[in-house]
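Regression test case RT-17, inverse folding.

Input:
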C-alpha cells in the first residue's frame, strides 16, 4: 500500500473549473457554488498512474481511428474477477454497455414488457426507479428493514410482493447503494431461491463490488450455489467506481445464460451499440492490471474517513444515526433526530444553508430515506472534516 499522506498530496487536486459534474454543477443543481460537494459517487482522486501513462502513450501516438477490442482487455477483467472475487468468468459471457445505468434500461426492455412489474429493495439508487418508471413498467418495492441503522431484508414481504404483483424482474444492488450492505451468502441464496420459485430474473448491479470497507467479502450473486442460478442472473459491473473512470464510458455485462445473451445481442445490434471508445478499453485494462496498490490505498483512506465520521457523530451529533459501512464509499446518515422525517425540500435549510453541504438527499432513494443524506467519502480527510463541522454547526444552531 502507498503512503496515504503522500498519496493525498499527489492525487487529490482541486477540481473546480474542470467541467467536473461533482463540483462545477453546484451553481445550477444546488443554486450555490460555495457548498462542500459530497454528493455524486465520483472520487476526488486521480486514477492510477498506469491509467494516465497508457492514455498519455495513446494520445502521443496521435491516431484515434477505428480500433479493435483487445483480447488483453478481456484477460485483465477475467483475471481480476478470479483473483479478487473467486469468480471464473468466461470470455463468451462478457458484453459491453457504455455504463451500468444504460445497461439497466437495456435489460428492462429485454426482459420485460410495458406494464410488467419490477421489484426493488428500497431505499435504493434512484436510477433504478427511473429505469422502471421511464419505460412504462410497474415499480414494486419491498422496504429494507432498518434496525438502529442496520439494514436487513424482509423475505416474507419480498416474496409476497412478487406473487401479488406477478413480478418479472428484480433489480439488485450489491453492495447496496445507499445503505452500504454487503449481502451474505445466506441472504443471496434466499433471494435467488425466491426468484427461481416465481420465475423472476435477477439483474445484479455490482459496480461497487471492489469497494469493501468492512470485514465481509463481496460474493458475486451469480456464483451462489456454484453457478446453480446462472440461468436467472445477469451481472453488471465496471472499473468506473473502483478506479474513478466513469468518464471512460465502459462497463461490463456478464450473461452466463445463452438465451439471454442472444436477446442482449439482438438489442445491441438494433441500437448499433456493440463496442466502446478505444481509450476506455486501454484505461480499464491498465487499471485492472496495475491498480491494486492504488485501490488498497484508496480503500484505507475511505475507511479512515468513515471512522472519523463515526467518531464525530458519537461525540457531536448524538441524535444522528450512521449506518455501518460494509461496502461502497457512500455514508448513509440518518438526520431525522434533527430534521424529522423530512424530504429534500424540507431539509435544504439544515443541510445547504446551515451545514453548507451539497449531498444526495435520502428521499430521492425512496420513502424510507426521508430524513437521511448520503455522503461521498472518496475525498480528502480535510473535506470530510469540514463537512462534519458544517453538520455539527447546523445541529447546534
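Golden output:
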Amino acid at each position: 500500500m502507498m503512503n496515504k499522506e503522500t498519496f493525498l498530496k499527489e492525487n487529490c487536486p482541486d477540481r473546480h473549473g474542470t467541467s467536473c459534474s461533482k463540483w462545477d454543477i453546484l451553481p445550477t443543481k444546488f443554486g450555490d457554488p460555495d457548498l462542500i460537494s459530497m454528493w455524486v459517487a465520483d472520487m476526488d482522486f486521480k486514477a492510477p498512474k498506469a491509467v494516465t501513462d497508457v492514455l498519455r502513450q495513446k494520445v502521443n501516438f496521435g491516431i484515434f481511428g477505428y480500433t479493435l477490442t483487445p483480447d488483453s482487455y478481456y484477460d485483465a477483467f477475467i483475471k481480476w474477477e478470479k483473483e479478487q472475487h473467486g469468480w471464473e468468468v468466461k470470455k463468451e459471457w462478457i458484453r459491453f454497455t457504455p455504463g451500468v445505468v444504460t445497461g439497466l434500461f437495456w435489460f428492462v426492455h429485454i426482459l420485460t414488457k410495458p406494464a410488467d412489474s419490477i421489484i426493488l429493495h428500497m431505499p435504493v439508487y434512484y436510477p433504478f426507479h427511473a429505469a422502471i418508471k421511464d419505460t412504462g413498467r410497474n415499480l414494486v418495492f419491498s422496504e429494507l428493514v432498518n434496525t438502529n441503522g442496520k439494514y436487513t431484508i424482509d423475505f416474507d414481504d419480498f416474496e409476497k410482493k412478487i406473487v401479488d404483483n406477478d413480478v418479472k424482474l428484480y433489480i439488485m444492488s450489491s453492495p447496496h447503494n445507499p445503505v452500504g450492505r454487503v449481502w451474505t451468502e445466506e441472504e443471496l441464496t434466499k433471494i435467488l431461491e425466491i426468484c427461481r420459485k416465481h420465475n423472476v430474473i435477477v439483474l445484479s448491479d455490482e459496480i461497487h463490488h471492489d469497494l469493501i470497507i468492512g470485514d465481509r467479502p463481496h460474493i458475486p450473486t451469480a456464483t451462489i450455489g456454484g453457478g446453480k442460478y446462472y440461468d436467472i442472473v445477469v451481472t453488471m459491473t465496471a472499473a468506473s467506481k473502483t478506479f474513478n473512470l466513469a468518464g471512460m464510458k465502459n462497463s461490463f455485462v456478464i450473461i452466463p445464460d445463452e438465451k439471454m445473451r442472444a436477446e442482449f445481442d439482438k438489442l445491441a445490434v438494433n441500437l448499433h451499440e456493440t463496442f466502446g471508445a478505444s481509450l476506455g478499453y486501454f484505461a480499464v485494462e491498465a487499471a485492472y492490471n496495475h491498480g491494486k496498490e492504488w485501490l488498497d490505498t484508496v480503500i484505507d483512506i475511505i475507511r479512515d474517513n468513515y471512522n472519523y465520521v463515526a467518531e464525530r457523530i458519537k461525540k457531536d451529533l448524538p441524535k444522528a444515526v450512521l449506518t455501518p459501512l460494509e461496502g461502497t464509499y457512500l455514508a448513509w446518515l440518518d438526520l431525522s433526530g434533527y430534521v424529522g422525517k423530512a424530504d429534500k425540500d424540507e431539509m435544504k435549510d439544515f443541510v445547504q444553508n446551515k451545514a453548507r453541504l451539497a449531498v444526495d438527499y435520502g428521499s430521492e432513494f425512496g420513502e424510507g430515506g426521508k430524513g437521511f443524506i448520503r455522503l461521498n467519502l472518496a475525498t480528502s480527510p480535510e473535506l470530510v472534516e469540514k463537512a462534519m463541522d458544517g453538520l455539527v454547526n447546523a445541529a447546534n444552531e
